[in-house]
Amino acid sequence: EQGLQLLELGGSVEEDYIRIARCFEATRQRCCRLEQDGQRAREQLARVESERAALEVKLKHARNQVEVEMKKRHRAEAELEKQERKLQLVVELLMREPWGNEALSREQCSVLSALAGRRLGAALAPIRRSSVVDESWQSLLSHSDISYDRTEDDV
User: Fold this and answer.
1) Cα 35 from Cα 71, distance rounded (Å)
2) Where do runs of H (alpha helix) occur along the chain?
3) Residue ranges of the domains in the chain?
4) Rounded distance between C-alpha atoms, residue 36 and residue 113, angstroms
């Protein structure tokens, strides 16, 4: 636009050519700056893409590890429930058998009767779980709340 305005103004031809050359030079310098900015942006994009790819790999490994740990936990919980049922059956058997009360001490009978009156797992909870670990986070991180969006893994 400036070049067209210069041509319309009239004046000496040499001055007009100098003005036009200056406009072209300013435009060339702007293009060079824009090219440098574009190159910096491409370099930054390449770095960010590389970081993103590394983070996706870490995320995939973390998801796999969580899945493995959840399977281990489910197996351990199933085994715990199985052992609790066995222990409950033994307690009930000992409490029902007439010879069981004679062979057991008074303290053992009171413990067994207390266990028989309640759910065994609740009675044994302080024994099998460390009091140092606060398991209140379980409701926040329940395995049913975890979303596994596998569509992003294929990207």
Assistant:
1) 54
2) 2-9, 13-96, 98-103, 106-117, 120-128
3) 7-116
4) 83
